[in-house]
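Sample intake sheet
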Amino acid sequence: MRMRIPLAFCMILFAAACNSNDEETVSENDVDAARNFISAVLHSDFDKATAYMVPDSLNQEYLDITRRSFERKSPDEKRYYSEASINIHGIRQVSDSATVVHYSNSFKKIKDSLKVVKLNDRWLIDLKYSFPANNKAE
C-alpha cells in the first residue's frame, strides 16, 4: 500500500506537467505565435521553438539550420541575441488562417518575415515561407 501512493502521486505530477507544457506553447493569436517563436529562437530554446512550428520535416530542417548557426556564435553574440527585443514592423493578413509578420530584433536590426498559419485551432509558424526557395510574394 505504501508504494501505491507515491507511484500514483508521481503519475499525477507527470500528467500535470505534460498538460501545462502544452498550454505554455499555445499562442493566443497569430502575432503572439510569431513573438513566442522568435523569442524562443533568440533565447536558443529550439525545443520550445519547435512547439510553435508547423510539424513537418522541412520546417524541422530549416529550424535545425538555424540551430546550427546559433551554435557557432560566440558567447557574447548569443547573449546579445537573448537580450534583444522583438520589433514588429508590419502584419499582413493573407487569409483567415494565414498571416505574414514582418519583424526584426534590436541586436541585428535586419528585417525579416514569418508566415503564421492556423492549423487545428493553433497558430503555428511555417518556416517554408521564410527561406529563399519559397515564393515570398504570397
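Comment: Strands lie at 86-95, 98-105, 112-119, 122-126. The first helix runs from residue 4 to 24.
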